[in-house]
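User: quick one
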Amino acid sequence: MGEKTIVALGTPPGESAIAVVRLSGGEAVAIADRMMDGAKSWESHQTHKRIIKDHNGEAVDDVIAVVMRGPNSYTGEDIVEISCHGSMHIVSAVIEEAMWLGAVVAPPGEFTKRAFLNGKIDLAQAEAVADLISSETKLQRSVALKHLTGGLSKRVRKIEEKLLTQLSLVEISIDFSTEEIETYSNGELTEASRWIRKELEELIGSKVAGRKLRNGIKITLSGPRNAGKSSIYNMLLGEERAIVSHIPGTTRDILRERIHINGFTYYLEDTAGIAEAESEIEAKGISVGIEAAAAADMVLFVIDGSVEPGERVYELAERLNIKRKMIVINKKDLGLKVGRKEVQKITGADSVIEVSALTSEGFDELRKWIYSNTVSLEIGKIVKEKIAINLRQAVALKRTMEALGRMEEGVSAGQPAEILSIELREAAAACGEITGRSISDDLLGNIFSKFCVGK
Amino acid sequence: MDNTAFKKNKYDILVVGGGHAGCEAALVASRMGFSVLVITMTINDIAGMPCNPAIGGLAKGQLVREIDALGGEMGRVIDETGIQFKMLNKSKGPAVWSPRAQADKKTYHERMLKALREQRGLDIVEAEATGIIVESGRVVSVEINGGEKISAERVILALGTFPNGLMHIGEKKIPGGRRGEPPARGLTNQLASMGFEKRRLKTGTPPRLKKETVDFSKCEPQPGDHNPSPFSFRTTGIDREQILCYVTHTNKFVHELITRNIDRAPIYSGQIEGTGPRYCPSIEDKVVRFSEKERHQLFLEPEGLESEEIYVNGLATSLPVDIQEEMIKHIRGLEDASIVKYGYAIEYDFFPPHQIYSSLESKRVKGLYFAGQVNGTSGYEEAAAQGIMAGINASLALRGESPLILRRNQAYIGVLIDDLVTKDIDEPYRMFTSRAEYRLLLRQDNADERLLKYAVRYGLLPKEQWKEGIKRRKRVIRAGIRLSGETITKDICNKALKEVGGKEVGEAKRAGDLLSRPEVELSMLEKYLPDGPLKLSGREKRSLEIRAKYSGYIKRQGKMAERFIKMDMMKIPQNFSYMDIGALSMEAREKMEKFKPETLGQASRLAGVRAADLSIIMVMLEKGRKEKRG
Ligand SMILES: Cc1cc2nc3c(=O)[nH]c(=O)nc-3n(C[C@H](O)[C@H](O)[C@H](O)COP(=O)(O)OP(=O)(O)OC[C@H]3O[C@@H](n4cnc5c(N)ncnc54)[C@H](O)[C@@H]3O)c2cc1C
Ligand SMILES: Nc1nc2c(ncn2[C@@H]2O[C@H](COP(=O)(O)OP(=O)(O)OP(=O)(O)O)[C@@H](O)[C@H]2O)c(=O)[nH]1
Ligand SMILES: [Mg+2]
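Assistant: Done. Structure below.
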């Protein structure tokens, strides 16, 4: 159909061992080919072990790729499925690379839409496809809006204003050249462009922090066995994910899930309860748990308050030497044998809270604590003061930068207004992909309202 | 000649209105072989210019070139009757050059009337159209002067500013279509009662001065071009003495005078309800909104060679006559000038163009077309452009052929009409080059390359014109190939570059590469070509130069356009029901119900319609198609 080749994460977002990135469209195989340097054959419906390199030649990941040639594929177009390691860092690097090579991030529902248009989906499903597009759009928009609150939106809007002003001045020189009125000057145009590009560099630079935010801030649940860690994990998740039982030592491997609190993404870990090791497997799980806690951004140390905690519990609590630590006294519903003040006194911890994973008492306070600690984290600060941008936004801003770079070259080569305007419009259009505003629609309105034109 | 008689009571096509839209519509339709009757209230104002005595200008000049390439009349008439010619934006790149000419209003009218009179199969009647007769959804005849009916297959309404026209001068209100002419009431009100939506707009015009009372020695003269370039590619040359225009300015005193009396200006007193064009503000508007400006430029333009009237471009106003007198007295050069005609504002009805297809046929009544100011535009050229398209499309319909829809990458005319059918028009619409996203493709120099083929296909222009064009293009391409193969030594390059103040080069260059630099002109470069000068006409040289300078950008715009064209090819049936598609956003549903876009491309240009909405429509369209196929 000659549509653009699209790329998207195929597996549900969240840390899993393996993630699948999917490309679909006429260029899918060509793009995959260039990502996986040295690939020779792409037999359809076969697995191929490859290494993905980024455009700087750095290896990103070992992957397994499968090509499904159209029309015998889900969308009816050529599809490449790339199974890479599940870290969000790797996934976004793979997607980013595909975008560098010309793929675009799939708009909401796009795979299904193409499947439908290519006759791969039953007619009766048309409404369902339409609904899918609509609901995915709503979801994306609400996420995008969150990203655009505060710092980022303010800064991007300012960039947009500058672009609009310069573009207006350039257009005035063309459409209102017979009037006595100021138009653009090469000096000011270049200056504005440089300012914008510097600003953009900073915005794109903060992508590192952005990635951390997208992947999640790590919170580890730690504490003695049977304290209710898995119960709290489930409660924060809002669903029964971890197995809960009265048998101490139920949890053996680390479980990880993503949760959202006040717009932040967290990456919550349930670990094996700490005790004298009994079996070898357990011992391993426990040491992994302790390591995990040490690498976390925050730790929730859970103790069972319905029984008198022993020496060892307190000792463990203190041993976890991490800045953002909260001691969670659980099972309040059973009546507490030990209270907040006492625990505070013994452990010297700043934050102690009483909750019940059974009745959900105290969880609002717990979430508030998590949020306020996030804001004092380094990345939290970046979010509050600066901004964080996602991949799609970064690509759009890069295009803005590139267009402005070309425009500056044009200025120094003495190109006329109608050429400079092309680059400015492209810069504005790319920027508009983030804000949803179309500068070229506002252009004449802006000229008429701000400049005295017309006879 | 008896202006009230017409030869038959049945025509193929009726054109109501003898303005710029009506004239082009009538001429093109009869040239396509149909019998046409023009019904107009005053034959004396055929192709009249109620406002400034000029044709063309920025973006408008391109429109005239396009009308001409389609076989229209405007370009030839202004070439024959223009009294000063200028190519605007000469200091910019050739993509945005625009021809403009001062018109002799009287001879322009006479020359256009002559074209109508001499056209076989075209009659004119001086009468007011007072109603249309519709039978089972299709227009069948037009009623004139409240009585007689004339039948026709197709009817084009080009009513201009006449529908319920109301003129304002200060506190005074005078019903009329323009100065000295009555308004048209019956027809518009009947259309409204049939369910057509109408709204109100406003425009204005400056006072005219008596030529001999103006002291031009105090003003700065503005000559035309030495070598005027004609509007029409059928005009071989313009060899005529050109008049001068003059520039003067308003001043602080005038601004204070206006500010003091602002409550007497109808636009500020609330007397006017219609919206005026922001790009064409009255002097009172400019003074109020841009109070920091100390003076505004005024152009003094003769209304014709013999005319006694001077048009004061830049001084549109509806202030009361005593203020107008006072204003004039205090402007340099006009101290003793007497006003022959006062400036005024006019309010009129228009029919918001979401009610027409891009063929200009109305959605509500089959066979009825709207063209010109009635669609909410302003300007002679915008009107003429729609007129010729309405004439072509009414004729094509009678031939049983599909309408000619020019795309946005093909012509300013395409941009104009596409904007009309996809945008909410809330001020008079005027063309600007910045409205065209593919500006580099839509140049005044290549209008014939873009559009001549249609004129030839419809029999409006002889085939030879087209063949000539192809030959010209081939010569240009060949010369381009020659330049890209010809190497110029480093020393000669630098000698040439020094001549134009360009940056030096460090090695020999191909001639083609040098030409692509903005500062290098072909006329200069030719001197240094090792194989001698090019054997091309002046026009071909310019064309070669443009190709060399813009080639990369032209390709880029071409590519961009291709992507959009695909969407413009995807038709949406008119009975497509948006309200039933729950997945569409509410805003999109309402917009699409109102505009009923004909293609996915049009839908994409409606404000408030997002990419997801388009995806959803694509899915539902496909469903409809497949169901039909069974
Ligand atoms: C005061 C004034 C100021 C203007 N200022 C500007 C300006 O600053 N810039 C600009 O670009 N444009 C301006 N214009 C607009 C410009 O004149 C028009 O855009 C252009 O002339 C429109 O052409 P048209 O063919 O649509 O209509 P017109 O040229 O208005 O012609 C309409 C024709 O229809 C006839 N007619 C109307 N109703 C009937 C009927 N019921 N029966 C029979 N005949 C009928 C009339 O007699 C007339 O011949 C101004 C117009 C006026 C009146
Ligand atoms: N009454 C009450 N019981 C609870 C509460 N939280 C957990 N329990 C119970 O305590 C037991 C242990 O809970 P888990 O969530 O499995 O504890 P854990 O800390 O994950 O245990 P391990 O994985 O074995 O280390 C289960 O029987 C739970 O039902 C609570 O707030 N109130
Ligand atoms: Mg557990």
